[in-house]
Here is the input.
Amino acid sequence: MVVVSFDRSPDAYRHWKLSTDGPVAWLELDVDEQGGLVPGYELKLNSYDLGVDIELYDALQRLRFEHPEVRSVVVTSAKDKVFCAGANIRMLAASEHHWKVNFCKFTNETRNSMEDASEHSGITFIAAVNGSCAGGGYELALACDRILLVDDNSSSVALPEVPLLGVLPGTGGLTRVVDKRRVRKDLADLFATRSDGVRGKTAVDWRLVDEVVPRREFRAVVEQRALEAASGSTRPADARGVQLPPLEREISEAGIAYTYVRAEYDRPLSLVRITVRGPDEDAPSSLHAQGADGWLLAMTRELDDLILRLRTNETEMGTWVLRTEGDSARVLAHEQALLSPQGDWFSNEILHYYKRTLKRLDVTSRSLIALIEPGSCFAGLLLELALACDLQYMLDGPPIEDPDSDLRAHLALSEANFGAFPMGNGLTRLQSRFYQQDDHLDWLRREAGQPLSPAQARELGLVTDAPDDIDWEDEIRIVLEGRAALSPDALTGMEANHRFVGPETIETKIFGRLSAWQNWIFIRPNASGPEGALRRYGTGQKAVHDRKRV
Amino acid sequence: MPTKIDYDSRIPNNVDLADDRRLQRALEGWQPKFLNWWGEMGPSLENRGVYLRTAVSVGRDGWAHFDHVNPPDYRWGIFLAEPTPDRRVAFGEHKGEPVWQQIPGEYRADLQRLIVIQGDTEPASVEQQRLLGLSAPSLYDLRNLFQVNVEEGRHLWAMVYLLHAYFGREGREEAEALLYRNSGSPDSPRILGAFNEETADWLAFYMFTYFTDRDGKYQLGSLKESAFDPLSRTCTFMLKEEAHHMMVGTTGVDRVVTRSAQLIGEHDTLDIAACGGIPLDIIQKYINFHYTVSLDLFGGETSTNAANYYTAGLKGRWQEERRGDDHRLTEDGVRLDKPGEDGAWAVDEVPALLALNLDLRDEYIADCQTGVKRWNRILDEHGIDIRLKLPHPAFNRHVGLAAGHHVTPEGTILDEETWEASRRRWLPTAEDLAFVRSLMQPVYERGKIASWVAPPVNGINGKPFDYEYVRLV
Here is the structure.
């Protein structure tokens, strides 16, 4: 099994070229056919695998932190006649189910992060579709704000998954066509059932693209659109970027340790114990001076990296136990330092990065259990970690290893828990936890800013249980052992249903409706059976379908 | 019962167009657009008539009529070969079933794509050859150029007929797009790369009609096997016309080689450029170029699309029915040479179904070899011991396994720098092209011919070489 690393740096990209020209950045896809993440397939026609998308994610992060001057991004292809053929089919056909699902999740998160940058960072993405654009290629374009298609009488946009592969366009394609671009459902149906796609004026009429541009004028019009978009941006005029240096980590058989985050494996129990450490120092007077070394950004990068690595490389660790260590007051002070400078681009980026990282937890197919013990610092923005968990247990008593200690566990609510870090459903984690219970939310708001004891936390409904020091070890052991005995599939489905209450958004539809259908279709014989469309794709033999509608 | 050609209607045909008002209207709507295109993109030499062959029947004998025609008045028509009674699908998963007279909904997009790609090449070559009329080496050659061009035009008609008759509104849109794309156009080029290169001189024209039109022959030959009967019958008749294009190429190169051999003998030197001949090494470089860009037209050695088309019955192999296998190919494998990273050749075993492009290309290469043999026989007859040859199929390739590798005409894998250093020895240089161009002075006097090419052994339709094949203004 390949161990996947998410470390990338623009000077070593194999598949993308990132360049900036004043306020406009160019992200050019130029996939190295031989550069697949695992052996066994060639990345032809700018098709992608997880490795290609990891570079895209890296580039997007750098555009936000290292290039505050960039206000619009052109996403295009450096290859002639082909924009992007989407996810590599041989890779998908050869992959195990969990790999496919995890791959789709990451690509979905990356596309969502583009829209997050549009909405919150003032970056406009322009898809300059300069050649054929199919499947995931069109879904990449759909994640952009504007789609320009070259009008050469042959380049088209297409979602050929249904007719060619017997699966869905699973990276938001079906959702964004109707929800974001507001393509009529009958036209969306025609579009998604024809393998050859739609080109030229029809693509504009159907709202699949925003404009078609003659080949010779293409580059000039793209540049013009990018400059127009840049002029309307809210990004600062003269800011200096913050470099993101490589993350430092120690990897061993026993786990992974970063500066503020560590993970310890408990393989017999199929779980990993994750500890997030609070800041060592008082809140900085200037976030900019600290750059990427500042606690919140450094911790977020580490946590983000850990989540991605565990999801991809440690698929059998079904339970993540989350702890924190540190001083709650300091966490809240750092939070203040982040939230108070209104309009500061860097604070804004850190805020939204932490938000996106919490969202990764929300859609992680692992049981998440928070253990809140003396010495922890689940306060304000770090309390969101506990709220993201499926279950929260708080020790009502002294530390287990030091029964004589006066130290007790506390929680603290803050302003950050009431709107700064919405989930994919648009609600805060508290609103999701107490859905449509406005009185309760008001009560919680009144409790903000003060340490909450285990008894108070239980009364406020912020924890599942608060066993005392006599029961604690047994209670937690039983919870964890019991969890490990349940069906991983049923748990994933159950947790995903419970976590996302309330309204649907494009994001919840993508991670819920679209992904669930897709993942069901993936494992059905019509797709992945020996005679299924996905398995037979590329063999020249036709799929045999079980005609029963289910 | 043979189909009858209706030669009196606006569009000559043997598909009962008069009884199909809808189709007739569609084609009559397309006709003026075609004529506009011909006016803009067709051969740019005014004349009062060209001695052309026009198809008047599709039977075995007497299918063509010869007479002087003003090219825009040429009767482009729609002719399908006679139907084969009780024809059955010969391959793929529908093997043994009756062939289709209508397109199955399931294969609509694929069939449309195949027809559009084939259709796109037909007018492309007319566009590529547009200026050649201004520098023809003889009236005989000029006439052949017109003949090839009007027939490419007719092949366009053949594909447009299929699009109009079987693919509804989208088919009509695609038929119009065939006229909007233009060879070498910066905005809207032809679909395949080789059809966007200008055919700059007459040696290139002979090479094109030998090598590139021969690719067309093999593509048509595999479409002729199609389970979609109208496509099969269309291609069967097109192949008959295509044979003439290849004759122009084969004898064209014959005549250049003959003339060069004569000059080498007369002046006792290989350096015949000064005597107005084309040196053999330049001929070899032209072969190297045109042969390899034509190989690119076969696509990658392995192709999922080709495999899907085969299984579906849309596109067969060359002479499918003469092959002795199961015509499904689900179990067979073939070996495939591929250039390795280490500079050595590696062998891959791939399913036969995926290697159909390679299969067709192998047939093509064997066919190309016959021409080279002819040309070498001419050299031999003139006592010259230099031999022309086809380069290695991995040489100078931009499509397929060899793309991105640097392989010599002999098949040695080199690094880029070493290969580039020898490029001038293998492929026509700007100086070579300029030199050949300098020879391209028009000769429009009856019975006369340019210095660099020998006259043909036979004229057209039994007419002598000094016949007035083209009546110039």
